[in-house]
What does this fold into?
Amino acid sequence: MRPLVLLPLLATAALAQAQSDTPDKVRVTVETGYVWQNKNDVAVPRSGTNFSFPDLIGRGPTGFLRITVLTTPDAKNGWRFVLAPLSLRGTGTFSSPVSFNGTTFAANTPTDGLYQFNSWRIGYFWRWAKNERGTWRLGFTGKLRDAKVRLRQGNTVSEYSNLGFVPLLHISGETKLTEKLWLGVDFDGLAGGPGRAFDGSVTLNVPIDRRATAFIGGRFLEGGANVPATRNSALLTYITAGVTLRF
It folds into this structure.
């Protein structure tokens, strides 16, 4: 997958939005780039073998696509929707036998691995600052986690899926660095109990016109769970680029 080739098309779409006024009731951000696995340790169940997904399928990079929609029906309150699918897959070998989800996978045998971590989110935010220097938002996010881990060796296949709800705190905003350059921050995160989740980005934003902004930056996704059914500890890092359109 080569998501960065989409950027000229996205920029063209952004330029097509250049019209007289700049209402900011709806903002659509299309984000693409590449993601690397810095760490991704998995055990299913928790008493099973703890193995490294990067060691099995490689660290990357892998392409991704993410869409965020912000709606602000009034000056202070708004809603945020995020579509963030993610699938990492590849083939490798284990250096020793692995017990996964009740199935034993042999060492030194080609093994297909899939790590899926789709994130569907809806959140409310309060816009607590908005002036010529920037805008800042504070709120909460409800995250639906659609996770799956699958291993395959020939005809031997085992898969563990998990669908769950995760409440997160949210902060985001943009601040002006120069007349043509803005700094953007976006963060969802919370830790406690049996797990944690942190998803944040920092971007440099350049206005194309009054309705569109292009950006480049970095993102990280860090989290984990430690319950009887599974143990997972992951750190993913991203190079990201895209456009934001205002309607």
About this structure: The helical segments are 7-15, 53-57. Residues 1-23 have pLDDT under 50 and may be disordered. The chain has two helices and 14 strands.
